[in-house]
What does this fold into?
Amino acid sequence: MTKPKSKAEQIRDTSKTGKPVNIPLRTSQKILARITDGIYRQPASALRELISNAYDADARKVTITTDAPRFAEISVRDDGIGISPEMLQYLIENIGGSAKRTGRGEELRITSSADKDFSPKGRKLIGKMGIGLFAVAQFTRHFLIITKCKGEGFRTIADVTLGKSDDTEQTSSDVEITSGEARIWIESASNINAQGTEVKLLDLLPRTRAELCSLEHWSRIDFESEEDGKSQAVPPVFHIGRMDPENADQLLEQPKLPWDTKDGPKMRFEKLVTSVRALAGTAGGLVDLDAVCDNYLQTLWNLALACPLDYMGHHPFDIPKDNKTLFFDLENKTRGQSVELKIAKGKTAREELDLQSPWAPKKDKFELLIDGTQISRPIVFIDQPKTVNAIKTPLLFVGKCREEFDDKLPSLSGGPLEFEAYLFWTPKVLPTQHQGVMLRVGNAAGAIFDRTFMGYQISEQTRLRQITAEIFVHEGLDGAINLDRETYNFAHPHYQFLVKWLHSALRQLSNRNKAIGKEIRDKKRGDESTKVRKRIERVVTKKLADVGVDDVVEVQFIEPTLFESVSDIRDEGIVAFRKDAVFRDNSGRKTGASKQREEVYEQKATALAQLLYGWGLLDDLSYDDQATLVRDILEIVLLEDGT
It folds into this structure.
């Protein structure tokens, strides 16, 4: 009896039959509900999943076109290894059951033969859920997959339609149901060495187009203008323009972008980031992306943060020592203390601590272009804006940790956890969306910055707004990632360990920040006190010289506990007074400012005593009366000054 052909074999036969193969999309009710009901909340989230698929397929370049600002169709094209008919069959028949982290990965040639957690060329895999391709359900119910593998003389085309499930099949969240259909066929290809995949999103849903067009913001401007004649809402500082909803080819508002048409792909995004940061001088010191960029530009920005891209400038571990940043090593202890890294000029924290992030093959390259703009990670570590803060120099705290969880079974702990991290303190974090911590697995992130720092409870509101942090997970945490890849299972041992580590790191940063600030303020007060003392000394010397007195006596104020030796001091020709006889009792808690006032007060008392001695006005008075006179004159003078 002849064995029936598999769907993959039938797909390969379409070159002869000319008839597409129809394959129903099968998944569980639970997974379908999560996909179609919005686990990918923003367009950037759904696009991120397609980019992740391309990265896992060893693509070196992903090119996205969105037809902005119309958004009639979106295309995502990569030069990865492509999808074979066998892999396409598995993908469609097993939505939510990724083959990447299973034995099927090597069989389908989508994972490394040495390690199922890595791509064929050695990249740490990002995806694992098996639903990334169908994240497009948030964009459309109709899309095309056009894919080719190197060495094959054909390309495979899948016309996919997502439909509502049959209610009669919805008996259980775990029961498989039909969630759509794919019509698949192959066509001959002239270039046998070509490879890659293109996903074309057709007939975009109205809500997706409205989101990308910033329709809500523009409509609010219109509504307020109609109601009051003048809108309180204003267009974003940077936007791609506004289309006429009645005429798809007519712009109602011309684009306002920070780059010129002549600028190259890389320069465009760099100008966007630079222009946004420059607004700090006109926006009260901080910049909120929601206020200055439309939804489309925010989508670009969020993708730049989430995807496994190079930083626009230096990786934080590669910032060279140049006296503009202070470096500290974090201790892996609950009550740990950071240690300043004495890095030689021109050297980096990576070299000093043997840091590895991002884990990637040597000479690996991954580029992302969206509508002709090459985006990169927009976190900037150099050329920070000037502020009034005492600490002018950014502080970079770095650390690495590996936890084996030896006291727990691997089935309970999830196995080892290994990561590297940095916490970057700067007086102004620009934009405000970069305040917080971001978790990266495989050099990619599923969520924006967490401004709570994973539930940090200590009252550090000002300081927390001055910190950008990233944790690069090399091993572990996979089991804690929820289906949407934007939230976590907070009870998972790996997540709990990261929480404790991060909160310890924040305390170490806070303690060091406070110590540095105090040292700077004390030095500044000391310098100011020295300047005041020298100025007073010059005035006293000049005033006495004017009346022929060149010898200025030395005056000291002695603590009461040491006053028994005052006669010895006076025998040396020094004018000595009991301190408590001249100055008010200030035995309470003293701040740096109050200490500085006391120092100036004492300097003025010294100057007054020197002037009185120079004029000979104290010669006939006892030491006690001399102290009383100096005290009374000073109190009257200070009273007149209002202090």
Notes: The CA atoms of residues 375 and 381 lie 17 Å apart. The radius of gyration is 35 Å. DSSP finds 18 helices and 19 strands in the chain.
